[in-house]
Amino acid sequence: MASSKVLMIGMGAGAAVAIAIAVAAFATMGGSATTTPAAAPDNNNAEGAQKVKVIASFFPLYDFTRQVGGDRADVSVMVPPGVEPHDWEPTPQQIQRASSANMLVYNGAGFEKWVDAVGANFTVNTSEGMSLLNNEDPEEQKEHGLYDPHIWLDPVLAKHQVDKIREGLVKIDPPNADYYNANAAKFASELDALDSHIKSELSSCEKKDFIAFHEAFSYFSNRYNLTQHAVHDSLTPEGEILPQRLEELVKLAKDLDIHVVYSEELVDPRLAQVIASEIPNGRVLTLSPIEGLDEQEQAAGLGYLDKMREDVANLKVGLVCS
Ligand SMILES: [Zn+2]
């Protein structure tokens, strides 16, 4: 996975620009123990009680689990900060650490292909019982299976995930059930507030169509009545953009009077820039799939709710909302 991707971008005139993308810069962090170390069981806290050790697969699940677990759970994350989690695979050490936790929280819907390899003591599949959308992008389908896993980007579905985490914590640590129930209820009300915020912020927009980097926003778009287009479905598995698809995307943007192409914090923005440069008054903004924070964001202590609000602010620009 530590390979650099080379993007060959056809420019219509026949000139091809090759952009080497330093995916490796992120990947090099993958093998080292940059995650929050799993602390030894704390037998000396005020209650004299031992915290439950929980490991979450990637950022949103980590944040949700922290919210519900509060100071009774020692939560760490599998996919390190700054690493794109789609194709991530754990090292044997990471698998070992995860298998020693009391509980493993994961998204499901085919996102974490490595979950079975962990052999965790107790697992929480946060998408269990949810009706899932099919993966529309054939490339994504080949890599990640039949279902679209990006449920966390819909705050209403995120509430379902939070409830699954609450259930799991109550099951493995019944004496603290009231505490977990109260934390989950509090966070659920914050997700309700986020849902209302999004509805009101996007209530008077000129457009419904936007160009995301990859097809992460299907659940979000269904919830808020938007139409997602994606750059990623124009790429070959080798990371080359097909000249014909580039032309199609540029035509789509012109036809729909779109001037913003969205990129992501964990991908090279130059790909979106190439498309934006072909569009009149085109520009690139970030629309985060919240699959992982970069190191700066991690250091600033940003959470899921902050990131969702950032996304909404940037979407408002592209959708031309008042
Ligand atoms: Zn994704």
Describe this structure in words.
This protein has 322 residues and is α/β, with parallel strands linked by helices. It has two domains: 52-198, 3-Layer(aba) Sandwich (Rossmann fold); 202-318, Rossmann fold. Strands 4-3-5-6 form a four-stranded parallel sheet, covered by helices on one side. A two-stranded antiparallel sheet has the order 1-2. Strands 7-8 form a two-stranded parallel sheet. The chain has helices at residues 23-27, 59-69, 92-99, 115-118, 138-144, 155-172, 177-201, 218-224, 243-255, 270-278, 295-300, 304-318; strands at residues 5-10, 16-21, 52-56, 73-77, 103-106, 123-125, 209-212, 227-230, 260-263, 283-286. The chain contains twelve helices and ten strands. Zinc ion is lined by residues 86, 150, 214, 216, 289, 291. GO terms for molecular function: metal ion binding. It holds the Pfam family ZnuA.
